[in-house]
Amino acid sequence: MRANVWKELENYFLILLGTALMAIAIQWIFDRVGLITGGFTGLTIIIRNLTEALLPGGIPLWLTNIVLNIPIFLYSYIRFGKNYIGKTGFATILLSVWLYLIPVIDMSGDDYMLAALFGGAFTGIGMALVLKAGATTGGTDMVAAIIQSHMRHYTVVQVMQVLDAAIVILGLYVFGLRPTLYAVVSIFVSTKISDAFLEGFKTSKAAFIITNRYEEVAERLMDELDRGVTGLHAQGMYTEEKKCVLYCVVSRKEIVRVKEIVNDVDSSAFVIVSDVREVLGEGFLEYSDDF
């Protein structure tokens, strides 16, 4: 029971920190140079810019974010129930609170590349922390889920991509081509960083080895590298010959030695090497409550 309480507290702390980083990216970087990276946050920047002529400073970002999300949350509550909203409601409100509290600072000046890189980095880390806590910040995520519930032949991701692309195109109309191109760079950076945080930074290598001398190769891999090797029963579809394919996961620096061993035993062997993330088990990452 106590472990569950601490886990929930940890999740809310992650949401607190993640939304703060996202708000910093919006207030200090994106809003200053007009980088529209999609989502309701991008829409709030567009609305603030368009209303500057009517209201000094335009409509505040935090206010627009709340106003846009209120009908979405009400509809989601009616359609999906209160369990669906959960932490996402907390994250959405908290993001608006941070946008209200964090002072406006011009962090990147007129350097669009710095804005794209650091804005993407802050957003990517912040979003990863929020997602790790089992929440989102509402916005186009929920809109996409609502639309997909009526259009089942599309996925939520597909609908969300269309919505975000439309917001980016709207940003092109409001801010011009240059900020929009750098916004694409920022989207790429934030996606890569978010994936890295969620999937883990420690990458390993997996090798599939097809050789007629599989027993000798497997023995040397186990003896010299102290790594486990799995034999997979396979059949060549051209020759219809039964084969044993060796599967072995090693660290990045050990893959060189794997290829040397295979080449030494059977220079005609066929080897496929691929990247893997978060290898759990003996010799790699240990299991924990986060996995």
Q: How would you describe what is shown here?
A:
This protein is an alpha+beta fold and 291 residues long. It folds into two domains: 2-199, no CATH class; 203-277, Alpha-Beta Plaits (2-Layer Sandwich), CATH 3.30.70.120. The protein is built from ten helices and four strands, in the order H-H-H-H-H-H-H-H-E-H-E-E-H-E. The chain has helices at 2-33, 39-50, 61-80, 82-101, 112-132, 140-150, 156-175, 177-199, 214-225, 255-265; strands at 203-210, 230-235, 242-250, 270-277. The protein has a four-stranded antiparallel beta sheet, covered by helices on one side. The longest helix has 32 residues, at 2-33. The radius of gyration is 25 Å and the shape is elongated. The two termini are 19 Å apart. InterPro entries: DUF2179 (IPR019264), N-reg_PII/ATP_PRibTrfase_C (IPR015867), UPF0750_membrane (IPR051461), YitT (IPR003740). It is a multi-pass membrane protein. Residues 227-281 form the DUF2179 domain.
Count of separate structural domains: 2
Portion of residues in beta strands equals: 5-15%
* Number of helices, counting only DSSP H or I runs of 4 residues or more: 10
Helical/strand content category: alpha+beta
How many beta-strand segments?
A: 4
Molecular shape: elongated
C-alpha Rg, in Å?
A: 25 Å
Mean pLDDT: 84
Helix-strand topology string: HHHHHHHHEHEEHE
Gap from first CA to last CA: 19 Å
Largest sheet report? 4 strands, antiparallel
Residue stretches low in confidence (pLDDT < 50, at least 5 long) are none
Strand order of the largest sheet: 2-3-1-4
What is the percent of helical residues? Answer: 55-70%
